[in-house]
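Convert to structure. Protein one:
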Amino acid sequence: MSKPKEYSFMTQNKLMTYTFVALLVLVAVGFFSWGTTLVIMAAIAVLVAVGIDFLFAKVTVDSPLNTLSAAVFGLIVTLSYSLGVPTMHSIEPLPFTGNSVYIYVAFISMVGMVVFKKALAIGGRKYVNPAAAAKFLILLPFLNTVFLASDHLKIAVALPDGSIYNAVIPKLAGALKFNPTTFDGFGDYLKSCLSNPAVAKAPDLWWTMIVQKFHGWAGGASSIAVIIVGLALFLLARRYIKWRITLAYFVTVILFSVLLSAIYGGDQLIRLYFELFIGSSIFMAFFMATDPATTPLTYTGQSIFGVGLGVLTVLIQTYLNFFGGAIMALLIMNLFSSKLDKVGLLKPIEGKVEAKLPKAQQFKSVRTIACMRCGACMRVCCHKLSPILIKEAFDKQKVERLVELKADLCDGCGHCSFVCPVRLDLKGSVLRSKAMLRSE
């Protein structure tokens, strides 16, 4: 029997397990708003994703079985799907209610797995968030009502005397306020659209936006639940989850909300409630924007990514009247991730600096899968090298890139392989790169 090997306690499976549990908690919270519909949706999306992952593992040689990752993807598809019927009536039928939700969720899960997680994962890297891209693609036929949402700017309100008042909701590029007399304030719109339709008197706006919403992304049913669950996940896996993106995103959204309130006037708190706690924003920031495979490796790149995501989200929602601007902003920023990988790389040094390593654990067997691009290896190198980038350059035999990355400084400490959650032989790749440079 081979001697047990020592690695960091964190593995890709363990990270996926933590994430899966966190998402299950949000499904349970969403159950109080949408009942068994959400549970059935989750079961369908997960089964489709896991089934496709199993099929690819059977028929291809370069797609190992990754059941937990597929299950997490299925839950993200479910929780990023819009549920509920808003007070205003869409000008086209939407696939947000009835049995059609099961068909669309299954279709999004299938397209996301086949097209964006498997077929387009060029060179082992995914260039756009699979769940966001699949949802955008499948719902594109509903452009006018989902993405541009012209009908979101009008609402029919039943007045106490039984008459109907056709209110025109002010655009976000204007003063946002409550108008309890005329029912045409943006705050009134949010309450009417997102509050529990079974309650005669809608709760206040704070309760609707933070505690329980009945329309929008299923994962945003309770903003406070997303925050609590998200922060708990960040704490458990802080070395491997890109929480800096979430922090930069929220700070940027807050600052831009304050700026727009100063420009247009109105109630600043209403704008903040909307920008921060609309369903797409809160869930996306914690569970989609931090996807390691489609976001930058470096801390600086992650911060820039979060800032860009926040700026684009606010601008798209404000000036295109697309209330789900976060998903479009995410796809745009994903396309810049490869460029941002080059921003903020640590400068290699000849001297040696010992990094603090996570808790060790012995493993009798080690399963290696594709890099998940967490960037953990880049923070523990004694010479501040970028092991994963060196490995990628070595695999493609890019000698000039290896010289640029100073691969010859490696002394084989093995810290990079120790922390890698997918157990890549980063140490071996870097040492082979060093040997190749010396032979040149």
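Protein two, convert as well:
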Amino acid sequence: MTPIETTVDIILGWPQDDIVLPDAPRTGRDLQVFHVAQSFLQNVHVNGEDCDVDLEISQTADRNAPRVIVETPVDSEFCSARKNIQSQLAQHGFRLDVEHGGELPQALPAEVLGMAFEDFEHNRGSAQVTTLWELHPATVNLLP
């Protein structure tokens, strides 16, 4: 599937449904793959409930900028993607595992490729996450 080019700001503007059921099937935008060529990785951690890697990206490096969640699943087909982001973060002195993660010391430029997913309302991410829309499953690469 050819990815659709987008930005964090565009994702933040996607309309949200009033009610999203946790087990709702993917439809519409949820079936499309998107590429964000330029964003800033602000926060990353391993989710204690499902072991997915949860990342928060913003349009700008501003710590208070609105963010979108990006998730790299624990599933075996994403193992190399998880190791890749761990390795890239380690090059910046940041350790990511089940015991280490959180706000990065400074926002890092990143690109993202993933499927749109409108999550349901639950405790998710930092206060800067301002949309139910995510890219999940997704891969993240830090940019030079």
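The mean pLDDT is 94. The longest strand covers residues 102-118.
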